[in-house]
Amino acid sequence: LTIKAFVTGYPIKHSRSPLIHRYWLEAFGIGGSYDAIAVAPEMFEHFMTDLKSGKSTFVGGNVTIPHKESAYRLADKPDDVAQELGAANTLWLEDGQLHATNTDGYGFLSNLDARCPGWDKTDRAVVLGAGGASRSVIQALCNRDIGEINVVNRTIGRAKELRSRFGVRVFAHPLEALPEVLAGAGLFVNTTSLGMDGAEAPQIDFSALLSSAIVTDVVYVPLNTPILKAAQSHGFTTVDGLGMLLYQAKPGFEKWFGEAPDVNEELRAIIIADMDKHA
Ligand code: SKM
Questions:
Q1: Measured between alpha carbons, how far is 76 from 25 in angstroms, rounded to an integer?
Q2: Which of 79, 185, 202, 240 lies at 20 to 30 Å from 175 by C-alpha?
């Protein structure tokens, strides 16, 4: 009997999740499958109905853009993390009910913990962007009691919502706000798609950060984004976004397949080789 899991999104071809989970399935010798399934937005409710009834024979799966909010809304039992975000990326059936959580924040924290132990000693962080990824990152930072979280976004609307929900400081007009909020900060996180797929990104002057500061990106195509390069040119430690993707996958794998997997260098290398192949 094959234990079946999925990742769904629209589009979904770009997803590296199948590579991650198949690597772990093989490492544990588990007779399972993990497939990418494209589901158009108007079909997602139908997909969820079949999942809940057991008709599709999946034990659960991952959900990515644009379905994370719908997945949360349509699940029977979203946990506290998913509820606070209003979005879910991990689903599993348990006692006939569809449970949901969001592991993006966990992935963000675990990756930094692994690559920069002690990173959370800083008392000032700057988060660029106010979309879905930003919410997960902010929620995660709040759970670690990072003193002051500054959110800089092009527009004020979504940032204001983050202020009322998470108590962060918010700034519109990045060009004006950044020099002020970067001063003395120990962590900078890009949660926007700036620099993704080789797009040009505005040069950010990171020189005001603490010399011990860490600059990280949720974008991982390319691995070394223009934002990370700019930070490296000032001598700052940088952490790419691939680790967050790898770590967010762990809790789902454990739920569906019953083993706790490891993120290791071999897995990272497999994903990077795949990215190079498609570059
Ligand atoms: O939250 C994750 C999701 O679980 C899987 C994914 C992917 O396969 O590209 C990306 C992120 O949204």
A1: 27
A2: 240
